[in-house]
Amino acid sequence: MTTPADVHDVRDPELPGRLLTIERDELVPLLRSRKDEDFALPVAACPRWTVRDVLAHCSAALIRVVERRFEKGVFSPECNDRDIAERAGWTNARVVDELERGMTEAGPVIARAGGVLDAVALGEWVHAGDVRVAFGEPGAYAGRGLPEALALLAAVTRARGHVPLHADLDDVDEPLKLGEASGERPPGRFIGDAATLVRLYAGRPVNGGAGYELAGVEAAELNIFGD
Protein backbone atom coordinates (compact mmCIF):
# COMPACT_ATOMS: atom_id res chain seq x y z
CA MET A 1 0.00 0.00 0.00
CA THR A 2 1.28 3.47 -0.81
CA THR A 3 0.36 7.04 -0.08
CA PRO A 4 1.99 10.26 -1.29
CA ALA A 5 4.97 11.47 0.71
CA ASP A 6 3.66 15.01 0.70
CA VAL A 7 0.08 16.16 0.63
CA HIS A 8 0.07 19.35 -1.42
CA ASP A 9 -1.43 22.59 -0.16
CA VAL A 10 -4.14 22.44 -2.83
CA ARG A 11 -7.24 20.81 -1.33
CA ASP A 12 -8.70 17.80 -3.11
CA PRO A 13 -12.45 18.47 -2.77
CA GLU A 14 -13.38 14.94 -3.85
CA LEU A 15 -11.23 13.21 -1.23
CA PRO A 16 -13.81 13.16 1.62
CA GLY A 17 -16.47 11.76 -0.69
CA ARG A 18 -14.14 9.05 -1.96
CA LEU A 19 -13.39 7.99 1.59
CA LEU A 20 -17.09 7.85 2.46
CA THR A 21 -17.88 5.80 -0.65
CA ILE A 22 -15.11 3.29 0.04
CA GLU A 23 -16.18 2.93 3.66
CA ARG A 24 -19.86 2.64 2.72
CA ASP A 25 -19.09 -0.32 0.48
CA GLU A 26 -17.12 -2.01 3.27
CA LEU A 27 -19.19 -1.14 6.34
CA VAL A 28 -22.82 -1.38 5.23
CA PRO A 29 -22.62 -5.06 4.16
CA LEU A 30 -20.92 -5.85 7.47
CA LEU A 31 -23.72 -4.13 9.41
CA ARG A 32 -26.43 -5.90 7.43
CA SER A 33 -24.81 -9.25 8.25
CA ARG A 34 -24.91 -8.73 12.03
CA LYS A 35 -27.67 -9.79 14.41
CA ASP A 36 -29.77 -7.22 16.21
CA GLU A 37 -28.12 -7.99 19.55
CA ASP A 38 -24.76 -6.96 18.11
CA PHE A 39 -26.05 -3.40 17.80
CA ALA A 40 -26.36 -3.29 21.60
CA LEU A 41 -22.63 -3.94 22.14
CA PRO A 42 -20.77 -1.17 23.99
CA VAL A 43 -18.27 0.96 22.09
CA ALA A 44 -15.14 1.46 24.16
CA ALA A 45 -14.08 4.65 22.37
CA CYS A 46 -17.46 6.32 23.06
CA PRO A 47 -18.44 5.83 26.71
CA ARG A 48 -22.20 5.32 27.26
CA TRP A 49 -22.75 4.62 23.57
CA THR A 50 -23.61 1.32 21.95
CA VAL A 51 -22.89 0.34 18.36
CA ARG A 52 -26.39 1.48 17.47
CA ASP A 53 -25.82 4.85 19.14
CA VAL A 54 -22.59 5.38 17.20
CA LEU A 55 -24.31 4.48 13.94
CA ALA A 56 -27.28 6.75 14.71
CA HIS A 57 -24.88 9.60 15.44
CA CYS A 58 -22.99 8.95 12.21
CA SER A 59 -26.10 8.77 10.07
CA ALA A 60 -27.60 11.88 11.67
CA ALA A 61 -24.41 13.88 11.15
CA LEU A 62 -24.25 12.96 7.48
CA ILE A 63 -27.92 13.70 6.87
CA ARG A 64 -27.41 17.11 8.49
CA VAL A 65 -24.66 17.68 5.93
CA VAL A 66 -26.83 16.45 3.06
CA GLU A 67 -29.75 18.64 4.14
CA ARG A 68 -27.48 21.55 5.18
CA ARG A 69 -28.98 21.74 8.68
CA PHE A 70 -26.34 23.50 10.76
CA GLU A 71 -28.16 25.21 13.58
CA LYS A 72 -26.35 26.68 16.57
CA GLY A 73 -24.62 23.98 18.59
CA VAL A 74 -24.59 21.46 15.75
CA PHE A 75 -22.30 18.47 16.38
CA SER A 76 -22.02 19.35 20.08
CA PRO A 77 -22.45 16.52 22.61
CA GLU A 78 -25.95 17.77 23.38
CA CYS A 79 -26.87 17.85 19.69
CA ASN A 80 -25.46 14.36 19.20
CA ASP A 81 -27.51 13.02 22.10
CA ARG A 82 -30.67 14.59 20.66
CA ASP A 83 -29.99 13.06 17.25
CA ILE A 84 -29.58 9.62 18.81
CA ALA A 85 -32.74 10.04 20.91
CA GLU A 86 -34.75 11.03 17.82
CA ARG A 87 -33.90 7.65 16.31
CA ALA A 88 -34.65 5.60 19.41
CA GLY A 89 -37.81 4.12 17.90
CA TRP A 90 -36.18 3.16 14.62
CA THR A 91 -35.22 -0.37 13.68
CA ASN A 92 -31.54 -1.09 13.30
CA ALA A 93 -32.13 -1.65 9.60
CA ARG A 94 -33.58 1.85 9.23
CA VAL A 95 -30.54 3.37 10.95
CA VAL A 96 -28.27 1.50 8.54
CA ASP A 97 -30.39 2.64 5.59
CA GLU A 98 -30.01 6.25 6.66
CA LEU A 99 -26.27 5.78 7.16
CA GLU A 100 -25.95 4.33 3.66
CA ARG A 101 -27.83 7.30 2.21
CA GLY A 102 -25.64 9.77 4.10
CA MET A 103 -22.41 8.11 3.02
CA THR A 104 -23.65 8.19 -0.56
CA GLU A 105 -24.96 11.76 -0.72
CA ALA A 106 -22.74 13.78 1.64
CA GLY A 107 -19.59 13.76 -0.50
CA PRO A 108 -20.63 16.40 -3.05
CA VAL A 109 -21.89 18.72 -0.30
CA ILE A 110 -18.60 18.37 1.61
CA ALA A 111 -16.69 19.00 -1.61
CA ARG A 112 -18.47 22.32 -2.15
CA ALA A 113 -18.03 23.46 1.46
CA GLY A 114 -14.43 24.56 0.95
CA GLY A 115 -12.88 22.35 3.60
CA VAL A 116 -14.91 23.21 6.70
CA LEU A 117 -16.72 19.85 6.61
CA ASP A 118 -13.79 17.64 5.60
CA ALA A 119 -13.28 16.41 9.15
CA VAL A 120 -16.84 15.04 9.17
CA ALA A 121 -15.84 12.39 6.62
CA LEU A 122 -12.73 11.55 8.60
CA GLY A 123 -14.77 11.23 11.79
CA GLU A 124 -17.20 8.88 10.08
CA TRP A 125 -14.33 6.65 9.01
CA VAL A 126 -12.90 6.63 12.54
CA HIS A 127 -16.30 5.70 14.00
CA ALA A 128 -16.46 2.80 11.53
CA GLY A 129 -13.23 1.64 13.14
CA ASP A 130 -14.84 2.01 16.58
CA VAL A 131 -17.66 -0.27 15.45
CA ARG A 132 -15.22 -2.85 14.12
CA VAL A 133 -13.47 -2.91 17.48
CA ALA A 134 -16.81 -3.49 19.23
CA PHE A 135 -17.61 -6.33 16.82
CA GLY A 136 -14.16 -7.88 17.18
CA GLU A 137 -13.65 -7.46 13.44
CA PRO A 138 -10.21 -7.01 11.83
CA GLY A 139 -9.23 -3.86 9.99
CA ALA A 140 -10.18 -1.23 12.57
CA TYR A 141 -8.67 2.15 11.58
CA ALA A 142 -7.14 0.49 8.51
CA GLY A 143 -8.60 -1.38 5.55
CA ARG A 144 -9.26 -0.28 2.01
CA GLY A 145 -9.93 3.36 2.86
CA LEU A 146 -6.67 3.89 4.73
CA PRO A 147 -4.77 5.72 1.94
CA GLU A 148 -7.62 8.22 1.56
CA ALA A 149 -7.99 8.53 5.34
CA LEU A 150 -4.28 9.31 5.77
CA ALA A 151 -4.39 11.90 3.00
CA LEU A 152 -7.47 13.49 4.57
CA LEU A 153 -5.86 13.41 8.03
CA ALA A 154 -2.86 15.25 6.63
CA ALA A 155 -5.11 17.83 4.95
CA VAL A 156 -7.25 18.41 8.05
CA THR A 157 -4.26 18.77 10.39
CA ARG A 158 -2.60 21.16 7.96
CA ALA A 159 -5.73 23.29 7.59
CA ARG A 160 -6.11 23.50 11.37
CA GLY A 161 -2.49 24.50 11.93
CA HIS A 162 -2.03 21.39 14.05
CA VAL A 163 1.28 20.39 15.61
CA PRO A 164 3.72 19.32 12.84
CA LEU A 165 4.62 15.65 12.61
CA HIS A 166 6.60 13.47 10.24
CA ALA A 167 5.34 9.88 10.24
CA ASP A 168 7.42 6.97 9.02
CA LEU A 169 4.84 4.24 8.62
CA ASP A 170 5.70 0.56 8.62
CA ASP A 171 2.94 -0.31 6.16
CA VAL A 172 3.16 2.70 3.84
CA ASP A 173 5.94 3.23 1.32
CA GLU A 174 6.49 6.96 1.77
CA PRO A 175 6.65 9.16 4.88
CA LEU A 176 3.63 11.29 5.70
CA LYS A 177 3.80 14.94 6.74
CA LEU A 178 1.03 16.18 9.01
CA GLY A 179 0.16 19.50 10.62
CA GLU A 180 1.31 23.00 9.86
CA ALA A 181 4.61 23.65 8.11
CA SER A 182 5.46 27.20 9.20
CA GLY A 183 8.79 26.15 10.67
CA GLU A 184 8.00 27.80 14.01
CA ARG A 185 8.10 24.41 15.72
CA PRO A 186 10.29 21.48 14.71
CA PRO A 187 8.14 18.56 13.60
CA GLY A 188 7.67 15.61 15.89
CA ARG A 189 8.47 12.13 14.68
CA PHE A 190 6.33 9.00 14.62
CA ILE A 191 7.54 5.51 13.73
CA GLY A 192 4.99 2.71 13.68
CA ASP A 193 2.02 1.37 11.76
CA ALA A 194 -0.68 3.51 10.19
CA ALA A 195 -3.57 2.25 12.31
CA THR A 196 -1.70 3.26 15.48
CA LEU A 197 -1.10 6.72 14.03
CA VAL A 198 -4.83 7.05 13.35
CA ARG A 199 -5.64 5.90 16.89
CA LEU A 200 -3.39 8.60 18.33
CA TYR A 201 -4.92 11.36 16.20
CA ALA A 202 -8.44 10.14 17.00
CA GLY A 203 -7.78 9.84 20.73
CA ARG A 204 -8.41 6.09 20.66
CA PRO A 205 -6.59 3.59 22.89
CA VAL A 206 -3.47 2.18 21.33
CA ASN A 207 -3.34 -1.61 21.23
CA GLY A 208 -1.13 -2.97 23.95
CA GLY A 209 0.93 -4.95 21.48
CA ALA A 210 1.38 -2.10 19.01
CA GLY A 211 4.94 -0.85 19.27
CA TYR A 212 5.61 2.68 18.09
CA GLU A 213 7.98 5.57 18.70
CA LEU A 214 6.89 9.16 19.24
CA ALA A 215 9.37 11.97 19.74
CA GLY A 216 9.14 15.75 19.92
CA VAL A 217 5.41 15.78 20.66
CA GLU A 218 3.12 14.36 23.33
CA ALA A 219 0.46 11.86 22.28
CA ALA A 220 -2.27 14.09 23.76
CA GLU A 221 -1.24 16.92 21.42
CA LEU A 222 -2.11 14.84 18.37
CA ASN A 223 -5.80 14.29 19.24
CA ILE A 224 -7.89 16.25 16.73
CA PHE A 225 -11.27 15.17 18.10
CA GLY A 226 -10.70 16.10 21.76
CA ASP A 227 -12.37 18.93 23.60
UniProtKB/TrEMBL annotation:
Q: Which UniProt keywords apply?
A: Isomerase
Indicate what this protein is called per its UniProt record: Maleylpyruvate isomerase family mycothiol-dependent enzyme
One matching Pfam family is MDMPI_N
Q: Which residues form the Mycothiol-dependent maleylpyruvate isomerase metal-binding domain?
A: 22-105
Instruction: Name the SUPFAM superfamilies for this protein.
Output: DinB/YfiT-like putative metalloenzymes (SSF109854)
One annotated GO molecular function? isomerase activity
Provide the coiled-coil residue spans. none
Gene3D superfamilies membership: dinb family like domain (1.20.120.450)
